[in-house]
Design brief:
- By secondary structure, the protein is α+β, with helices and mostly antiparallel strands.
- It has one domain (7-47).
- 38% of the residues lie in helices and 17% in strands.
- It is built from two helices and two strands; from the N terminus they run αβαβ.
- It has helices at 7-20, 31-34; strands at 26-29, 44-47.
- The longest helix is centred in the first third of the chain and has 14 residues, at 7-20.
- The chain is globular.
Amino acid sequence: MGKVYTTNEIKSKLLPVFSAVPVEKAILFGSYAKGNPTRSSDIDIVID
């Protein structure tokens, strides 16, 4: 089982990656976007 991250924690981990490559937008979806993640949730992101 993993950790349940806050949206800010996810953002802080992804921003360095996004600054290294051209990203037009990133969309968080799934249980994290709905606000009900559990310890077994994955982090679903669409990157354009």
